[in-house]
Protein: Transposase DDE domain-containing protein
Amino acid sequence: MLDDAAFGGATPVTPKRLNVTDPAARWTAASRERAFYSYSTNYLIDLDHAVIVDVEATTSIRQAEVLAQRRMIERTQERLVLWPDKLVADTAHGSAPNLGWLVEDQGIEPHIPVFDKSARKDDTFERSGFTYVHEDDSSICPGGNRLRPSNRNFKTPRPLANADGFIRYRASQKDCQSCHLKQRCTPNMAARKIMRSIHEGARDMARDIATTDAYLVSRRQRKKVEMLFAHLKRILKLDRLRLRDPNGAKDEFHLAAAAQNLRKLAKMKPIPELAPA
Ligand code: SF4
Structure:
């Protein structure tokens, strides 16, 4: 089961500890809390009504969360014929491939913070200071020069995008060497290089959505999700699983979600009016 990519247990990261009686349980800790062996429950929720639409048990790693999200969306489309217009989620879901999958493959608006590691700590120009030009697939730097996908001539042509799905756009050394902004742009390199994902269109869409009022509404709606998880722990006391292995976790998480939905349903039942005396 540890190697089962479908369960999300397959990861290149070696766990610090292995539980010999339940090897798919992950040794993990929330911030500033003690570590323990755990599984994660993932919910797909109809945010308008705070109803749990699907549940997926996974091992407690980020890659598994994204896999769970995809499986729940596909399963909901297939079983309930529900096609969400938007997905509200946290940064764990904001990687370029996942945003690409949501926008390009599923036509779903990502109300998700973009996972972006391009920030620079040395006060030099950020990637956002470069303007992408669709017409000729180039990027214009703050000095007004163009960076292109490849200025290098390899004997054997190489694919433009690396294995990580990012294309390197490079300025010409000639431009940078004579540029008065070089110290503020690339003080230690002969020429500036920036990276653009093959899913940058989807990332840009997520960045644009993040500036809208609709995004603020989505952030508020996310609190409903957090309340469901808090309820799971504090009221239903699901801070310890009674059953072992991924199937045990799956059964307990499904039962708990069903209980939460039933509680919701009970609250929705109209209170009968008292008959007049
Ligand atoms: S150093 Fe190079 S990339 Fe940076 S602004 Fe100058 S010309 Fe443009």
About this structure: The chain has seven helices and ten strands.
